[in-house]
Design goal:
about 290 residues; alpha/beta; Rossmann fold; 2 domains; globular
């Protein structure tokens, strides 16, 4: 039975899907289907048992590296049992943690949750009621228990901004960490799982669109401009914006978290310099400075 050699554990809305797609495109690498099984985090999925989880990798064949990518694994405090379950099943797994400017990540998540109808009000109202959205971008808070459980040598920190500025170099670095044999190649396929392109959930709409025969009729008879206009009805009309006061409040909160993360990475990160630092150089967790 195959179990993962590596897992992309988050963070949500930081290009985990893009990275998993690029890894799956390399010869000898297999990614589970679904990409995000959320097995170790979600109680109802974990209840399916290890046989179910192992079945996700039955088609790996002769792949040298097998992995999955579930952002639920770094969603404290929502899923508190994840690491305990991980250690029992995957004691030697390698982990990849992807990060992004925390406020950019938060805005993207809000759009995602809106599309799923988990939030409905203006962003600042929703943040007051749903602080978990803020917590998912507190990277030091999320990764600290993983560092304690697995140590800094088994966790690779990756920045979304670095993936964008030097995709081939960053893919090669990830593959080297995983022990990939060969020369990985970045495939130009565009961004994956872009929140701004999401349409809001609508069971009735989806049932109609997925009805047998209607897709062919729709694409054949309805002009693309009309179809695009109709899609726009289900998309967020404008990007969410934060007031200056709320942004300043969030920056103070995130800067406190980034100060801890900076010590573990051996660099200096703040909301103000995050994009410049993250895009300019790769980083690793340093044993002497991990402090966990």
């Amino acid at each position: 039975m195959r179990l993962p050699d590596f897992v992309i554990i988050g963070a949500m809305k930081c290009a985990t899907t893009t990275l998993s797609v690029q890894l799956a495109a390399q010869d000898g690498v297999f990614i589970s289907d679904p990409k995000e099984p959320n097995f170790f985090s979600n109680d109802e999925i974990y209840a399916k048992g290890m046989d179910w989880y192992e079945s996700l990798f039955h088609d790996a064949g002769g792949a040298r590296l097998v992995g999955e990518a579930s952002t639920h694994y770094t969603k404290l405090p929502t899923y508190p049992k994840t690491i305990e379950r991980f250690k029992k099943a995957l004691p030697d797994v390698k982990l990849i943690y992807v990060m992004r400017h925390p406020i950019d990540r938060l805005l993207s998540q809000y759009v995602h949750e809106w599309s799923q109808r988990l939030v409905t009000g203006p962003i600042e109202e929703e943040l007051l009621m749903n602080s978990w959205m803020i917590d998912y971008g507190r990277y030091a808070m999320q990764i600290a228990p993983w560092l304690e459980a697995y140590g800094p040598d088994r966790i690779l920190p990756v920045f979304n901004e670095r993936i964008r500025s030097a995709p081939q170099e960053e893919l090669a670095r990830v593959c080297e960490f995983l022990g990939f044999e060969g020369a990985p190649k970045w495939e130009e396929s565009g961004d994956q799982n872009v929140s701004s392109q999401r349409m809001r959930k609508s069971p009735l709409r989806d049932a109609i669109l997925d009805a047998p025969g209607l897709k062919q009729i729709r694409t054949g008879l309805v002009p693309k401009s009309v179809r695009d206009w109709a899609k726009g009805y289900w998309k967020m009309s404008s990007k969410p914006e934060l007031s200056e006061a709320k942004r300043a409040e969030l920056e103070r909160l995130y800067d406190e978290d980034l100060a801890l993360l900076s010590g573990w990475l051996g660099t200096t990160l703040t909301c103000a310099n995050f994009k410049d630092v993250a895009s300019s150089k790769p980083v690793t967790f340093q044993r002497a400075r991990s402090g966990v």
